[in-house]
TrEMBL record:
Gene Ontology molecular function, alphabetical: odorant binding; small molecule binding
Annotated compartments: Secreted
Name by which UniProt lists this protein: Lipocalin/cytosolic fatty-acid binding domain-containing protein
PROSITE patterns: LIPOCALIN (PS00213)
Length: 171
């Protein structure tokens, strides 16, 4: 099992083609809204899928060595508020939710942020991305940056889901 986690962690670190940018806690901490999500295994992010999440709040702790996340998931069709704290090691966060998750935060602009995650559910690794915005939407340029991220990670463009169409959870 440790071998699988180490392989997953190494894969995530190697997947980033550039060195991870140092996170500025003031740009990360605050209200966020999930705009788009995508996965190489689309079933995981479809409505009522285990990895479909509506993020509301991120908070850097100790210069972003830990990250507090508040989000909603629908089980089934009912919004359930959840929270988790991820720990950062070598630029990659780890958190347990629907398995083991290793993820990185990728600044897109002052008002948007992408998340690239690899989820291991005990059987299979699923690559997942999400585009977050500080408002109700993203600019065309931010969306293009997000689409490029998916392309780089091997996630097909037809696997992108618009979360704003199904997000009826409380702010």
């Amino acid at each position: 099992m440790k071998t699988v986690f180490l392989t997953l962690l190494l894969g995530l670190v190697c997947a980033a083609q550039e060195a991870p940018a140092e996170l500025d806690p003031s740009q990360i901490t605050g209200d966020w809204r999930s705009i788009l999500t995508a996965a190489d295994n689309k079933e995981k992010i479809e409505e009522e899928g285990p990895l479909r999440a509506y993020i509301r709040w991120l908070e850097c702790i100790d210069s972003c060595s830990s990250l507090s996340i508040k989000f909603y998931a629908k089980f089934p069709k009912q919004c359930t508020r959840l929270s988790a704290v991820a720990e950062r090691e070598r630029g990659v966060y780890q958190v347990g939710y629907m398995g083991s998750n290793f993820f990185e935060l990728i600044p897109v602009s002052e008002n948007s942020l992408a998340i690239y995650s690899e989820n291991f559910d005990g059987v299979k690794v699923t690559k997942v991305t999400q585009l977050l915005a500080k408002g109700d939407g993203a600019t065309e340029e931010e969306i293009q940056h997000y689409e490029e991220l998916n392309k780089e990670r091997g996630i097909p463009p037809e696997h992108i889901e618009d979360l704003t169409q199904t997000d009826d959870c409380p702010q």
